[in-house]
Amino acid sequence: MPGKIILLVDSTLVIDLQNELKRYESDLIGDGWEVLRKIFQEKHR
To answer: Residue 45: inside a domain, yes or no?
Structure first.
């Protein structure tokens, strides 16, 4: 029984993978998952 899934995406890849991410999220939702997309940026040290 699906539940929630967190999809972590590096901010530098969001634009390049826009179509693939939409498709992946749509597939997950179709399988019954609640998708929580989080976009993150690596902080400089």
So the answer is: no
Is pTM beyond 0.90? Reply is no
pLDDT per position as a tens digit, 4-44: 999 999 999 999 999 999 999 999 999 999 999 999 998 76
Q: Which two tokens mark 41?
A: 């940026």
Instruction: Give the burial string for 13-29 (b: 16+ CB within 10 Å, else e).
Output: eeeeeeeebeeeeeeee
**Residue 9 belongs to a domain:** yes
Evaluate whether residue 14 is within a structural domain.
yes
The amino acid occupying position 15 is I
| Domain region containing 15 | 4-40
